[in-house]
Amino acid sequence: MKIILVNTSERTGGAGIACNRLMKALNNAGHQAMMLVRDKQTDDPNVVSVNTCAWTKKINRMRFIWERVVIFLTNRFSKKNLFAVSIADTGIDINNHPLIQEADIIHLHWINQGFLSLAGIKKLIDTKKPIVWTMHDMWPCTGICHHARECDNYQEHCGYCFFLKNPKSEDLSYHIFNKKADVYQSKNITFVTCSNWLKKRAEKSALFSGLRLFSVPNPIDTVLFRPMNQMLCREALNLPTDKQLILFGSMKVSDKRKGIDYMVKAAELLSQKEGTENIELVIFGLSDTDLSGLFPFNVNYIRFLPDENDMISLYNAADVYVTSSLEENLPNTIMEAMTCGTPCIGFNVGGIPEMIDHKINGYIAAYKSAEDLAGGMHYVLNEVDLQQFGSAARNKAMQFYSQNKVAERYVEVYKAMGIES
Questions:
Q1: CB-based burial, 249-260: b 16+ in 10 Å, e otherwise
Q2: Spatial separation of the C-alpha atoms in residues 264 and 202, rounded to whole Å
Q3: Hey, CA dihedral for 406, 181, 207, 62, is it positive or negative?
Q4: Which residues of the chain have pLDDT under 50?
Q5: What is the pTM of this model?
Q6: Cα 408 from chain centroid?
Q7: How far apart are CA 265 and CA 156, in angstroms?
Q8: Residue 412 neighbours by CB under 8 Å, 6+ apart
Q9: Closest to 230 measured CA to CA, from 310, 298, 345, 314
């Protein structure tokens, strides 16, 4: 069975990482899986870029810029929410690409920012080859947004989009919703969500009426991501060996959607509790602001760790990993930390409660409650057996997210479409 996984990038962003890990999981299970991407970051021969030369790379970059310009102009020259929505009105025609022609299954992932257009996806569907589309956010089941938040217009028909400066009944979200309805009408497509939370939301979309929908989590290499000696990891990263370390971060940690304001407030509340003078923060990710002055604790800031092994050491160096993200599906960071045996804390949002078992392997805080987030950090650091919590976190990851388990579940999805391995 030859599976071609299609994603905008090879390793950038959560979807790229998850897609790449699935490719490896399927190959380890004895299948032929390759990635077709626009942006290739490594020399992996199983990953092929549509950028065949400098000229095509430049053209494809212009497609990305063009889509943002259209959104910018439609939204009356407002930069607000410029990357919270996508319209897929331009893209690369991969229909005749050799990998697509050879594929038994075309498996789409995150294809936005000028990589594939809706017209191009319709061409793929018209090949009559089985199409699987793994959703890493809500975009396939809404008009234009990647996260609908409290809006439920997509359940009937998008319009009056709150992401637009001038929402109205037949706005940009309305027209893209209609285009998606036209693309999906052949029913020759199966959707997969990475969390049960997203599956429940997608099932309510008018776009998905009559379509097959499964829920399968992202995989992780449980051999690579593993528990290690905490003190040795701290020494290797030049982190203090005599402190309680709270790890916090994301690819862009200053992004408001990652909830940094709530993390700052939670840290202030935590610092007011007894027995917290021994705490330090370790923050990773890109930031537009100086983070050290925001928190009441000493901050060890690690801007970027390109090597996966360094990230594994970082998870192991921490006593707990905290995410204050306000919009999530199935965060790779939580999965990675848990697999390393590090307890996690996060808000009750998206797929996070499916990952963290409250007061068993971590802590689920009430959504947007800095008070409960602070309480969760205090609880995990002072009231539980960290080793026991860490072991429970590792066991959860092994049971649900290991490569072989996830590969088996995807093979079941493929077989449900009539494809034999």
A1: bbbebebeebbb
A2: 33
A3: positive
A4: none
A5: 0.93
A6: 21
A7: 38
A8: none
A9: 314
